[in-house]
Amino acid sequence: MDFLYHQLSEKDKEDIKKQVQGILDSFSKKLSEIKEDIKDEGIEREECTRKEKSSKIPQGEFSRKKMFENAPNKNEDSIIAEKKKW
């Protein structure tokens, strides 16, 4: 896959910088044209706190027992997974 990589000359680097700056300037200009008439009216509620529903222990195919049965590496209370391999 060496054909995907090639050295850039200083002129190419400068051209890319100019293109990026042009894109940023154009984007910034478009953002400044957006009207800010959006009002934050918020959500009015009768009560300030949310009532928690009772939780149910998952059953069937989503149970903790099934999850641990399918895990290749585990200890008593945790699934052991690889970190940063992908």
Describe this structure in words.
There is one protein chain. With 86 residues, this protein is mostly helical. It has a domain at 55-80. 35% of the residues lie in helices and 0% in strands. It is built from two helices and no strands. The chain has helices spanning 10-32, 64-70. The chain is flat, with a radius of gyration of 27 Å. The protein starts with 9 loop residues before the first helix and ends in a 16-residue tail after the last helix. The model has no long low-confidence stretch (mean pLDDT 78).
Let me know the largest β-sheet.
none
Beta-strand content estimate: under 5%
Tally of contiguous helical segments: 2
Number of strands: 0
Mass-distribution shape: flat
**Rg over CA atoms:** 27 Å
Question: How far from one another are the termini?
Answer: 20 Å
- Overall average pLDDT: 78
Low-pLDDT segments: none
N-to-C series of helices and strands: HH
Strand-pairing-aware structural class: mainly alpha
Helix content: 25-40%
Highlighted features:
86 residues; mainly alpha; 0% strand; flat
Short description:
With 86 residues, the protein is mainly α. Helices cover 35% and strands 0% of the residues.
Topology diagram in text:
Blueprint: H1 10-32, H2 64-70
